[in-house]
């Protein structure tokens, strides 16, 4: 199945179409300028590019707990206002059973580890605060 995800809504739609029930994993990130930055790094950062990513909170949700991107943003802002990007991954259930929050713990740790260690984030969906997809490169 070829799925083209271009928005948060198309991500939810794709998750709903999977053969097994899904739990979505979210890691909210803050961008910052590294201590050892140069002038070019600072210029790029202030133009909205580059910088270091720092995870500041994470959550897992069933598809039934999710609606619009603006609702996700509103919920996140009640906990932490200072985030710029959210990483999203899907976790598939087995035999028609939705994964539990306990099942999501290890995959969330792996997402956090990837961010903290400068790992490959291209396997995750990412959105800015306005819901615009973000690509890492």
Please characterize this protein's 3D structure.
By secondary structure, the protein is of the alpha+beta class. It has one domain (19-128). The protein contains four helices and four strands, in the order αβαβαβαβ. A four-stranded antiparallel sheet has the order 2-1-3-4, sandwiched between helices. The longest helix is centred in the C-terminal third of the chain and has 16 residues, at 101-116. The chain is elongated and about 55 Å long. The two termini are 25 Å apart.
Major beta sheet, strand line-up: 2-1-3-4
As a whole number of angstroms, the C-alpha radius of gyration is 16 Å
Number of helical elements? 4
Number of strands: 4
Q: How would you characterize the largest beta sheet?
A: 4 strands, antiparallel
Question: What fraction of the residues are assigned to beta strands by DSSP?
Answer: 15-25%
Secondary-structure-based class equals: alpha+beta
* N- to C-terminal distance: 25 Å
* Helicity range: 25-40%
Mean pLDDT: 89
Listing every helix as H and every strand as E from the N terminus to the C terminus, the arrangement reads HEHEHEHE
Uncertain runs are none
The oligomeric state of the chains shown is single chain
The total domain count is 1
Apparent shape: elongated
